[in-house]
Each structure stands twice: as structure tokens, then as C-alpha cells.
Amino acid sequence: MQIVRHSQQTLKTALISKNPVLVSQYENLDAGEQRLMNEAFQPASDLFGPITLHSQSDWITSHPEAPQDFEQFFSDPYRKIPSPDKHSIYIQSIGSLGNTRIISEEYIKWLQGYCKAYFYGLRVKLLEPVPVSATKCSFRVNENTQNLQIHAGDILKFLKKKKPEDAFCIVGITMIDLYPRDSWNFVFGQASLTDGTGAVD
Its Gene Ontology biological processes (predicted)? Predict the structure, then answer.
């Protein structure tokens, strides 16, 4: 087991930009937002706690990627930016998310709350749940796990058709396994940057 812990200076270097556009935004933060920024880099803060890698098969160690700091993210020419008329995140639940409707509703409201906090300033709206059959997606039974799986690409096509006019993006949530193509065992999720659609299980 390995624990990855970043120093205060590493976090500040990665997250605080010297880009003039962002510097002007930092200066306009209200008192609460400034306090949050200051607390974020303290050693005892819960915002950037240590990451525990439980084994060499952990996703982080088995799928190495080049690091990206906030400056690189902000300057990415392909980064999608919300606009006044595209300012809402829509969550579409697909199939049951729990043993009862009440559990499913509680789960999706919990997810909505997290999205509102994380994507601060964007509206987060819930669409009426739909059964899997409504998506008309392809499906299979995984030969290794014997679990029912639905095709992630077909879910994205369904979401693209359902995407409201004011949507910055729409994300489908399901408890059913996803697969992107026949040669893959499964996938945690799939998204289209250009269409503003995503599906996760």
C-alpha cells in the first residue's frame, strides 16, 4: 500500500495560476471563497487529503498519465466553457439506482448536491428517470461475470437526443455495467466532449 501526499507548495504551484485572467478572478473572490482558498492548502485540510493506493493493480498505477496542472487545464483549447444560455448540468438516471424508488431518489439528490458544490455556479437539474428499455441500447451478458451490460455508446446517442437547449452537458447514471465495444470487458464510463454527454455506472 502506498500513500501519495502532496506538499502545500506543490498544491499551490499546481492550482494557483499566474494567468492575468485568473488573477483578476482571484481578486474578486468574496470573503467565504477567499477563506476556502486559504484553507485548501493547509496540511490538516480535508480538501486535498492523501491518496491511498491499495495495490499495484490500482487504476492510478496501472494507467499512468501525464500530470495536468490548473494552468494547463485552463489554457486547453478544447476545454468547454459554460455560457449564459448553456449553464445547466442535467442528470438522467437510467434504470433503478436502488432497491426501492425512495432509495433511488435519495441517491440522485445526494449526487445533485455534490455536483452543485463541485461545479459551483452551474445549475444542476434532474430529469425524470427512464427505464433501460427507453434508451433502445444494445446489451449483452458478460461471459466472465454473467452480468447484464449495456452499450455505453448507445447511451450517449440517447442522451444527445434528450439534451435540453440550455444544457452545458447531460450525464446518464446507471447501476448496470457498461461496455464500449465487444472486445472490452467493461468500462467505468464514457463521454463525448463535443456533444457534452457522458454515461457512468
Answer: proteolysis
Indicate yes or no: pTM above 0.85: no
Chain centroid to Cα 148, Å, comes to 23
Beta strand pairing status for 88-94 and 167-174?
parallel
Spatial separation of the C-alpha atoms in residues 89 and 119, rounded to whole Å: 9
Give me the residues paired with residue 124 across strands.
89
3-state SS, the chain, equals CEEECCCHHHHHHHHCCCCHHHHHHHHCCCHHHHHHHHHHCCCCCCCCCCEEECCCCCHHHHCCCCCCCHHHHHHCCCCCCCECCECEEEEEEECCCCCCHHHHHHHHHHHHHHHHHHCCCCEEEECCCECHHHHCCCEEECCCCCCEEEEHHHHHHHHHHHCCCCEEEEEEEECCEEECCCCCCCECEEEECCCCEEEEC
Residue 7 in grid coordinates: 506538499
Q: Which fold is adopted by the domain 88-200?
A: Collagenase (Catalytic Domain) (3.40.390)
Q: Would you list the domain boundaries of the chain?
A: 2-75, 88-200
Q: What is the pLDDT of residues 82-141, one digit of tens each?
A: 999 999 999 999 988 877 778 788 889 999 999 998 898 899 999 999 999 999 999 999
